[in-house]
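== Folding task for one protein ==

=== Format: two labelled lines per protein ===

==== Paired sequence and structure tokens ====
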Amino acid sequence: MWAVSWVTPLLAGWWSVTAGAVLVGGSAVVALSRTVSVRRRLAGLGLLLAGASALGVGLRVEVLTGQPWTSSRATAHFAGVVASDPKLSRVAGWAGRPELQVSLDLQVERVEQGGRVSLARVPVRVVGYGDEWAALSWGQRVSFDGRVLPRGRADPYAGVVVARGPPLVVAAAPRILGWTEVVRGRLAAAVGGLPNDARGLLPALVVGDTTQVPADLTVAMRVSGLAHVTAVSGANVVLLLTAMLGVARWIGLRGWGLPACALVTVVGFVLVARPDPSVLRAAVMGLVGVAAVAGAGRRSGPAALLGAVLVLLLLDPWLARSWGFALSVAATAGLLLLSPVVGRRLPRRWPQAWRDAVAVALSAQLATAPLIAALSGRVSVLGVVANLLAAPAVGPATVLGVLVAVTATVWMGLAHALAWVAAAPVWWIASVARTVAGLPDASWRWPHGVGGAGALIVLGVVAVVGGSRVVRLPRSMRVLCAFVLVAAAGVVALGPGRWPPPGWLFVACDVGQGDALVLPVARGSAVVVDAGPDPVLIDQCLHRLGVHRVPAVVLSHFHADHVEGLPGVLRGREVGEIVVAPLDDPPEEVARVTAWATADDVAIRRAAAGESDAVGAVTWQFVWPTHLLLGEGSDPNNNSLVMRVTSGGFALLLTGDVEAAAQSAMVASGVDLTADALKVPHHGSAAQDPRFLAATGAGVAVISVGAGNSYGHPAAATLGLLAADRMVVRRTDLAGDVAVVAGSDGLRVVTHQP
């Protein structure tokens, strides 16, 4: 069922419908057969479920692709219901000034375009700008003008709508959702005076709101193996339920009171955390885990879990392509199958609540380790230790956080006091994460992607099978191990190739709308040119590449989409120096870069045109700016550092965001611009000088650009110029990480989806 749900969104709708009809017909043939055995019944049920999934996906895809307004990029007027909380980010706007970008999901109900009205309930992803978009909340009815960009082949929505101007709120959210907004707002106000770590982590523990968690703490939580604590997953809900049921037992609640308490807790959690798919999924997984443990435990648990997975995949087949869903299922399976075993082996002198919390946390960490390895390319060596140390504090922090949220609605003074009490266990969790992440070899580099996950599973199962020689395993466990080994072998065989590829000269990391380039100089060591807009994304890319030492970070200019990721480069790595552009603009980003460098005791050096440098066999020369070019467009862009890099006998031209004026000046100066590979300036914008592009003579052009960006990058005119110059073009928005690789017959390009 999972495999069918994963594959069918990639197909045309009518293909999925046809395949579903064939599978359902096959199940009918099996059901009508005269000889009905258990195996035939199972085969018929499997065909029926797979067919139902294919039919459901096909019909949904037909609806998503059949809207007449999705085929035109003209502006239209949209009306619908906000279906998610806004996600905020800072991007470089007009003239490089930081601008607030907001993305959210919208359930469209009405579209007007060119006098034609379409009525259909379909989801879209909306990108807007400004505080008015950031102020929207789940459940509000809004209308606005926007331009539609086409959907990706496997996207669960009809397209990306780039808003033109602010939204008009037509109707408020339902009263119950308005109440939850009050709870969230008062919780944020109650923790507002706490230290940064506690202020960010406490709402994350209570409602899964991670927007205020410091970026470096997010990295530390992942490296230390504690990321599951703040994720909205089944394990997260189970931790909350475990704590609440412990309180219920302590106050004397018994019998039907305990399930009622669990149900009220989950309903309240869903309402406050928002009833979006990820939260509903987590709630279902949490209830499955608690119900299984309360019932027949390990006997009924797997059946309940698999039943829940089937129902969720039928309701939302796109969950099959969600890492969050896979993590939820894995964490819940760990709870059902591992936590009873772990709990029995913990010291009996521990309080029962502590034993439950530690068993749940350890089981979740072990069960999700292969998936986390696939995502991050790292295995947390000290994750078990971190979970053992942090788990006893998770329950108290969660319960106290819930009390803070409830109390804040009636008495803010008491809520402030409780928040400071809750800050103690939260501080402990953050301290454990930071301490463990800062230890040498806290995590080991591991093959990234599906192959890495399969390898870790194989290693774990081999350990279990090897241990069975000492401790005799029951036949059912041996069969399970054999099944997992076979499945893992298939995963490894079908997994992606080695990353990074041998002979790579540079990689353009997929960090969204920004630049982050990596030049390898030795094993585990690389020069980083620009850091992108997000510290987590660049840190993950460097982990995937196995980079733990950075002799130099070059910041081509100070726009946010090139420097805001710098903390992710500095975190846990030995950094030699930071080389910056000659123009200190915009000043607020200059100040932030200076503060980050000072905090990590990294020297900052200003580059000069004509200056050359080398690390290992990689050499480079700054060919621009020879002088400050002002008033000819965006000053920071036009004064970006341009590097001509020589590596492995090939020349690379890294161009920052220089626009047409600076490009023309370089061509006129006669500087050597020839290169085998070109990083296209300014994310492929239309501000290009054709003479500059032609002067490079490059055979490969790499465009670092964010998917669905509102700037129209890369411009069609620029793509036309690159095609006319016969360059092979690769884009990070379509291909993910892009590697330029040296071969005996020249350069080739290898891509990798993170």
